[in-house]
Write a structure and sequence with these properties.
The chain is an alpha+beta fold. The chain is 14% helix and 22% strand. The protein is built from two helices and five strands; from the N terminus they run βαββββα.
Length: 125
Amino acid sequence: MIWNGRSVRVYARAAPTDLRKGFDGLSGLVREDLGREPTSGDLYLFVSRNRVRAKVLLWDGTGLVVYAKRLEEGRFASLWDRLKAGQIELSAAELQLFLEGCTEVGKRQFSPPEIDPQRPLIPAA
């Protein structure tokens, strides 16, 4: 795993992507389609139409990095079935499962919600 911790945010583009795009093309999609800044430190997931290839774009502090994966068997989960356009937010654990080919990602929640520091953990009696 290249990233760790719950603090990293993962945004998936909720539409098939032409994965011939490189750093500049994917950065443009992050800005235009997702409304985010590629150098924020967040991770951005893009999936091909046939769901056999995926790319993750991230800023590591010194430059943009693109990780690519091609499944030899099966297909990645269809995240864009959840939304017609825009973005989907995943946890780092869900991204890891997604990249391993888990087809349940996007269909059910795997990670518990983040704890709100303003809300007490134990309800008042």
